[in-house]
Design goal:
The complex is a heterodimer of chains A (60) and B (254). Chain A has 60 residues and is an all-alpha fold. Chain A has helices spanning 7-44, 55-58. In chain A, 70% of the residues lie in helices and 0% in strands. Chain A starts with 6 loop residues before the first helix and ends with a helix. Chain B has one domain. Chain B has helices at residues 4-8, 11-43, 57-84, 89-119, 127-148, 152-166, 169-179, 199-247. Classes of the chains: A mainly alpha (60), B mainly alpha (254).
Chain lengths: 60, 254
């Protein structure tokens, strides 16, 4: 594909677009999985929003 | 009867709906952008003046539009927070900031790389370029202000006020090419009397703009979902800390 004398500028533009968007997508995916993992850890420990204790400790 | 915003005011319902929508929207974005890139590189002819360099337009113009759309979303969400106290308004504003900043950065980078071969310079302090740079700094300012305040409610309100004050930059960006003498060309797609771009170049541009807009919505929804999860984690962590503190209160004090 011949992009003429300014090909470097065209490829650099598309490369910048790809890098910035890939970084943004990667960060959002990583952040989402990290939040899910932390939420799952808290729920596994039986923590609820009302501050109730874990089922194991509540059991008489 | 509930309006759509009232229905979505419930974060749990929002998570359900967005979870179903996201894969479809992501697929639509990928397909539309793939088609747009095919048109850009294999179908669109070179411009009679700019030659192949016009291909930069297919990513620069959508990035510039979305830079402004991102800030519009933040401003509307901020209005929704301050006036209607919509539960998801702050979540939306917070999630849109880094995405809008990324697209503004892309508009600046691609514009600079387009400017060098066409204008002979990467940068010039003209009204359009400078106002977009200010928009980028506004995004950074919003994120910095929010992260500098520990109390989330105070941070949300102050950020919303700053966002609404900063909205004045949008008409300045839009009309800068009409109000001042700029190196940047005036509006050529959305203008009275129709576009001045040839249909062979306009079609890939519009398809690219649609693709990037869907991608923006996907990223925004994902960012909002992450923020809702982060707030749940924070609420549960606080509940756990409070419970632990109560558990350590000496019996004599009760």
């Amino acid at each position: 594909m011949d992009l003429g004398p300014h090909a470097a500028f065209i490829w650099a533009s598309y490369a910048a677009e790809t890098i910035v968007l890939a970084t943004l997508i990667g960060w959002l995916l990583y952040d989402g999985s990290r939040q899910k993992q932390q939420l799952a850890d808290l729920e596994r420990r039986g923590v609820t929003r009302r501050g109730a204790s874990s089922p194991a400790k509540d059991t008489p | 009867m509930q309006t759509i915003t009232q229905k979505l005011a419930n974060p749990t319902r929002f998570m359900e709906l967005s979870g179903k929508l996201l894969p479809w929207l992501a697929a639509a974005a990928a397909l539309t952008l793939g088609y747009a890139m095919y048109l850009a590189f294999f179908v669109a002819p070179p411009d009679y003046q700019q030659g192949e360099t016009v291909k930069i337009m297919f990513i620069h113009v959508p990035a510039a539009w979305l830079a402004m759309m991102g800030y519009s979303i933040i401003a509307l969400s901020s209005f929704g927070l301050l006036v209607f106290r919509h539960p998801l308004a702050d979540v939306s504003a917070k999630a849109a900031a880094p995405i809008g900043a990324a697209f503004t950065l892309l508009a600046l980078i691609t514009g600079s790389l387009w400017g060098k071969p066409m204008w002979g310079t990467y940068w010039v302090w003209d009204a359009r370029l400078t106002s977009v740079l200010i928009l980028f700094f506004l995004y950074l300012g919003l994120m910095a202000l929010r992260s500098s305040l520990e109390d989330e409610a105070t941070a949300a309100k102050l950020t919303a006020v700053l966002a609404l004050v900063g909205v004045v930059i949008l008409p300045i960006i839009k009309f800068s090419v009409d109000w001042w003498n700029t190196l940047h060309q005036p509006a050529s797609v959305l203008k009275m009397g129709g576009s001045t771009i040839h249909p062979d170049l306009l079609r890939p541009l519009l398809i690219s703009a649609i693709g990037f807009t869907i991608l923006f919505l996907v990223l925004h929804l994902k960012g909002m979902r992450n923020e809702i999860l982060r707030r749940r984690v924070k609420a549960l962590t606080m509940a756990e800390v409070e419970r632990a503190a109560r558990g350590h209160v000496p019996a004599a004090a009760e």
